[in-house]
Amino acid sequence: MMPRRTLTTLCVALLAAGSIGGAQPSSPYRLIKQIPIGGAGGWDYLSIDPAAHRLYVSHSTKVVVIDTAHDAVVGEIAGTEGVHGFAVAADLGLGFSSNGRANTVSVVELATLKTVDTIAVDQTPDAILYEPATQRVYTMNARGLSVSAVDAKTRSVVATIPVGGKPESSASDPDAKRLFVNIEDKNAIAVVDTAVNKVVATWPIAPGTECTGMAIDRRNHRLFAGCRNKLMLMLDSNSGKVLAKVPAGAGVDSTWFDPATQLAYSSARDGTITVAKASPSALAVVETVTTAVGSRTMALDPAADRLYLGAVDYAPVAGAAADALPDKAQAKADTFRVLVFARR
């Protein structure tokens, strides 16, 4: 039996550890499944509908639909030329794809995976977001240097908002009537007032550069931004002040946040995911997950505590390190798949 004094000391130590950034993950993430997809062409964003157990994976000219309860492909959404992302409007029974090469958004009936409408938007829609509180869809238009605001019910563009640079991903706070948009080539975040569809502030993100992924903690008014100079930032979403930073992988692309655990995640092209614990004024790395080189985009299912990433195998490049991904690396045919990570 442990002596009372030792037991008391241990309890105090554990309580102190818990007070610094909250409870730590009980076990590390590990690869539990690989879901084969195959085919040719690249991929970009993955999006999740936890309630329906559906994962939507952009793949060149289509969106691949995966049943996450059985880890199996159950369908495809065709005709999405140069698709980047897919936004789920579960309350409307619809989904919206951003078709970068076609400058359109496809409106998809989720029950049948059939396209029921097509909406023209500004040039090269990339990331896409649906805000249930306002029933608006927002596309980040890379060449248009703008954001298109789409009424999801009438399926019409209500505003095209210049943002002063190349928009990447975004996050919304409907209570504050704000949309936060990464402006990748300006090292800044544009703040859009969604009541008037206008940029009302532009926040510098120094020491971060080339911000790509973004997530939000609405309750605590915190933004999380993944930056290409190997940083994850935490900002105050009321003021834009950078409150904390932690190291992240090379080639960060997507960033997610789980409000239940207060964990932020940034996936990177170097084959890592940075997992950081947030508190109101601090951010601390609690785990670095090894994935696959090139697996830069990710989706988080907070209900199942699972992470999903796209991956391919690459042909070797002469003179390149085995764990590097040179710009000229070629993907091997029919190796595209989704990696599934969990803590159990």
Low-confidence stretches: 1-23
Can you identify the CATH class of one domain? Mainly Beta
Separation, N- and C-terminal Cα atoms: 31 Å
Q: What's the story with the biggest beta sheet?
A: 4 strands, antiparallel
Q: Compute the gyration radius: what is it? A: 20 Å
How large is the count of helical segments?
1
Structural class: mainly beta
Q: Strand-and-helix sequence, N→C? A: HEEEEEEEEEEEEEEEEEEEEEEEEEEEE
Strand content: over 45%
CATH level-4 homologous superfamily of one domain: YVTN repeat-like/Quinoprotein amine dehydrogenase
Range of helix content: under 10%
Please give the order of strands in the largest beta sheet.
1-28-27-26
Number of beta-strand segments: 28
CATH architecture of one domain: 7 Propeller
Attribute tags:
344 residues; 1 helix; Methylamine Dehydrogenase, Chain H; four-stranded antiparallel sheet; mainly beta
Overall description:
The chain has 344 residues and is mainly beta. Among the domains are: 43-162, Methylamine Dehydrogenase, Chain H (7 Propeller), CATH 2.130.10.10; 204-314, YVTN repeat-like/Quinoprotein amine dehydrogenase (Methylamine Dehydrogenase, Chain H), CATH 2.130.10.10. The chain is 5% helix and 52% strand. The strands form seven sheets. A four-stranded antiparallel beta sheet has the order 1-28-27-26, with no helix packed on it. It has a four-stranded antiparallel beta sheet with strand order 2-3-4-5, with no helix packed on it. It is globular, with a radius of gyration of 20 Å. It starts with a helix and ends with a strand.
